[in-house]
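To the wet lab folks,

You asked to see what we're planning to order before we commit. Fair enough. Below is the target structure as tokens, and below that is the sequence we designed to fit it. If anything looks off to you, flag it before the synthesis order goes out.
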């Protein structure tokens, strides 16, 4: 063994060894005792950032630990390879998105290998490969046949600079998140997946995910947004249909003073036909953005349609307005307005001087000032005819049944969740496998013609997608009538690929089916690890897709991820480490300077995985110093020759020898718990560090002492190996083993070593701490008292005084009471 710790040599040697032994390649047909550990795959942006390194180190530590516990661990890695940045890079550097992506993958793969992650590289996936997206296209066609995929014209946020549709979250202050250009609204035909059919399942099954963080489940619940209300109809003069509204507060029905509809509502369109002011108002509404968070704060604007609705109970006639805060996509696209009890309705009524009628009163008789704000609490009904004096809760039921009996309304459950728009007008994505024929309409690509391959060798002319101007791509014949037809040139939202990759890893090499029976051997994923930024969309889409796979008979489980860990952010000087803030630390430089093990150790030691991690150069130095200390300890020990492991006879050991063994075995207990249950890898490392300190002090070169040191060093090496696998791989050999560390089991606890035969007791004199003694655990009271009085410092305080009383708390404390 070399005296100096040389991380470069050691890490390379370990990596070559694992590679040659194929240590991490699993037999995918394994059925029992499996553990599927998955970290969210990266977008191949160019190089790894510290957030990736943290994410993947956590996953690797869990994987390696589970392996030592006897599990067959599957830990795959791949690339979420489609997406906008590749196109931006193409425009900027004049390199095809495919080439840019493949180059980035190659570089980042090298980095991941340098970090020593225990991946089964034989199952690597890149979502931009036809053998992957072929099955996504195939599944889409199955969904289309079931009516779960459909096309409709939808209003979208259009970014005029990036020439793409933006999701609502990508619109910030009415501008595109990347381009900063004012967003326009456009109506274009788009493909949707009917996720709303699964809203109830997606909500209810959250209950089964007891190993998910509550915060994530709450975010999912809010996003799905279930509400219980009543849908009711108003009769409108001169309008062919009844006007339906959705309310969660039917108890306020008698306080309705107007009705408001969305600008896109049929009634608004009819009103605009011969009223240019209304037409202009509607047009202006369309130009403003959709972002929902802004709905609450934006200025409320409206216009009177001149139409009037008849109140379903009182028969009173109320005006119908068009209001910009009513969403066409939610509920019925129209609301019954109760300005006394809804804040938005109140603001609108103030602005346009519409009447405000209070019908709900506080249960405790406190007064309400409706000139300041709406009273939005529930309470007691007044001014509500036969419903007066009911509580809100009672009135909900009473009014709902009244409307139902009159056939004017019914109870309705609504979800905020919208169907998932999967069309993107960009190039670098999986082609949507549909053909449009003038005669036959939309026709799916026949399955034997899949995949529809995205041409990779393309030239960008401007921002527009190259395949939209490439007849060789889009010109085709109709599978039904053989006439000329046009392929869909939109591509899938990249959330499509990341919604099922976890399953495809298990069927990576199957070119005949999307999934096979191996999927059920591994799914659900035992441990999924990733950033909290994916708490809503990615996880919701993956959960939805899993249910689609289940209903297609491809898996039997309900949910894709059993246990979820969302790792905290990496901070530098208190701010999130990010390119835009210019405060990044490049992992590559650190790997080169200190080695992968130092980086891994620092990351796992600096914070528990779910908390944010403050970057510290000193911390990195500290991790590096610790590894050198560990190295030196083993070096010094083995310089005297290796000690073959032998039975240790506990009864022959000195107190000091027993103490160090007890420390070792206590550490094994504690680290096991930290790694298995608590996931507090930082404290697991801390107790190993303490053990290293104790071993430096121990320095017992007797035969027994060397035997104990050998045992402790082996324990340390095993326990630290999930965190710092390379150095431990070497140390294991240095300690005299011919078998590889990677095949070792987690160390066993020797119960005998845990037994304590002496306990430490504090000694007080008149309640003040004056000394400590160690006594036999079985010592009787008299022996303990004598030992206490005999303690040097205690003796000084007691000397010459009368001892009144001695109080003994067994195993803990002795208090000597003396006359002052
Ligand atoms: C009358 C009312 C009175 C309301 C009151 C609230 C309080 P959640 O809980 O999120 O489902 N609403 C219904 N459809 C809407 C749309 N398309 N655009 C904007 N707002 C709409 O919200 C349901 C409530 O949001 C409904 O209950 C309705 O206002 C409004 F004291 O009806 B409420
Ligand atoms: Zn046709």
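Sequence we intend to order:
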């Amino acid at each position: 063994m070399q005296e100096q710790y040389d991380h470069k040599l050691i890490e390379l040697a370990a990596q070559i060894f694992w590679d040659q032994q194929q240590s991490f390649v699993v037999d995918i047909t394994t059925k029992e005792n499996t553990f599927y550990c998955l970290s969210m795959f990266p977008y191949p942006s160019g190089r790894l950032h510290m957030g990736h390194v943290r994410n993947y180190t956590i996953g690797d530590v869990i994987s390696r630990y589970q392996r030592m516990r006897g599990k067959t661990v599957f830990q795959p890695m791949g690339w979420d390879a489609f997406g906008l940045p590749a196109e931006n890079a193409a425009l900027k550097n004049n390199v095809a998105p495919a080439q840019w992506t493949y180059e980035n993958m190659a570089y980042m793969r090298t980095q991941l290998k340098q970090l020593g992650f225990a991946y089964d590289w034989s199952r690597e996936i890149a979502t931009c490969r036809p053998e992957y997206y072929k099955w996504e296209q195939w599944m889409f066609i199955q969904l289309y046949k079931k009516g779960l995929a459909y096309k409709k014209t939808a209003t979208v946020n259009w970014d005029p600079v990036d020439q793409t549709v933006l999701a609502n979250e990508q619109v910030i202050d009415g501008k595109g998140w990347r381009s900063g250009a004012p967003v326009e609204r456009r109506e274009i035909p788009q493909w949707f997946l009917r996720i709303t059919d699964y809203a109830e399942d997606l909500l209810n099954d959250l209950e089964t995910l007891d190993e998910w963080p509550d915060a994530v489940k709450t975010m999912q619940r809010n996003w799905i947004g279930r509400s219980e209300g009543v849908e009711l109809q108003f009769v409108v003069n001169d309008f062919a249909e009844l006007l339906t509204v959705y309310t969660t507060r039917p108890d306020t029905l008698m306080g309705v003073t107007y009705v408001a509809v969305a600008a896109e509502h049929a009634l608004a369109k009819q009103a605009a036909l011969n009223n240019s002011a209304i037409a202009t108002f509607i047009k202006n509404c369309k130009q403003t953005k959709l972002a929902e968070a802004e709905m609450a704060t934006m200025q409320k604007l409206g216009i009177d349609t001149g139409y009037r609705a008849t109140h379903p109970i009182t028969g009173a006639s109320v005006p119908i307005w068009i209001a910009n805060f009513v969403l066409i996509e939610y509920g019925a696209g129209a609301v019954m307005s109760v300005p006394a009890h809804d804040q938005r309705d109140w603001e609108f009524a103030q602005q346009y001087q519409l009447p405000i009628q209070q019908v709900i009163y506080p249960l405790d008789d406190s007064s309400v000032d409706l000139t300041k704000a709406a009273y939005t609490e529930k309470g007691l009904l007044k001014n509500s005819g036969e419903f007066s004096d009911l509580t809100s809760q009672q009135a909900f039921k009473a009014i709902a049944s009244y409307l139902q009996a009159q056939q004017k309304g019914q109870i309705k459950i609504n979800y905020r969740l919208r169907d998932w728009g999967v069309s993107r007008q960009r190039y670098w994505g999986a082609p949507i496998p549909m053909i449009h024929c003038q005669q036959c309409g939309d026709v799916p690509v026949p399955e034997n013609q899949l995949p529809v391959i995205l041409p990779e060798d393309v030239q960008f002319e401007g921002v527009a997608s190259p395949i939209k101007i490439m007849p060789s791509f889009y010109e085709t014949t109709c599978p039904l009538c053989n006439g000329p037809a046009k392929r869909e040139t939109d591509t899938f939202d990249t959330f499509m690929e990341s919604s099922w990759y976890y399953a495809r890893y298990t069927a990576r090499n199957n070119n005949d089916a999307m999934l096979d029976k191996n999927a059920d051997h591994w799914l659900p994923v035992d441990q999924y690890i990733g950033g909290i930024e994916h708490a809503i969309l990615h996880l919701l889409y993956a959960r939805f897709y899993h249910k689609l796979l289940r209903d297609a008979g491809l898996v039997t489980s309900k949910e894709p991820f059993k246990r979820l860990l969302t790792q905290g952010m990496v901070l530098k000087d208190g701010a999130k480490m990010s390119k835009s803030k210019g405060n990044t630390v490049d992992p590559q430089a650190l790997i080169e300077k200190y080695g992968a093990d130092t980086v891994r150790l620092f990351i796992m030691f600096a914070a528990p995985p779910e908390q944010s991690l403050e970057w510290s150069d000193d911390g990195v130095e500290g991790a590096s110093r610790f590894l050198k200390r560990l190295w030196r300890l083993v070096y010094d020990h083995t310089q005297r020759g290796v000690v073959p492991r032998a039975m240790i006879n506990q009864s022959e050991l000195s107190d000091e020898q027993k103490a160090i063994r007890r420390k070792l075995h206590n550490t094994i207990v504690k680290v096991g718990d930290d790694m298995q249950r608590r996931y507090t890898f930082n404290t697991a490392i801390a107790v190993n560090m303490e053990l290293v300190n104790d071993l430096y002090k121990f320095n017992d070169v007797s035969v027994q002492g060397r035997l104990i040191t050998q045992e402790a060093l082996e324990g340390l090496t095993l326990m630290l190996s999930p965190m710092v696998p390379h150095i431990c791989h070497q140390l294991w050999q240095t300690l005299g083993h011919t078998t590889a560390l990677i095949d070792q089991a987690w160390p066993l606890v020797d119960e005998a070593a845990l037994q304590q035969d002496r306990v430490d007791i504090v000694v007080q004199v008149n309640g003040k701490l004056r000394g400590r003694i160690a006594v036999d655990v079985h010592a009787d009271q008299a022996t303990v008292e004598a030992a206490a009085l005999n303690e040097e410092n205690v003796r000084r305080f007691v000397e010459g005084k009368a001892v009144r009383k001695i109080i003994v708390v067994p195993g803990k404390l002795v208090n000597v009471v003396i006359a002052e």
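Structural context that might help your review: The chain has a mean pLDDT of 94. Residues 227, 246-249, 252, 326-327, 330-331, 333, 335-336, 338, 341-342, 414 surround ANZ (ligand 1) (CB under 6 Å).

Thanks,
Computational group
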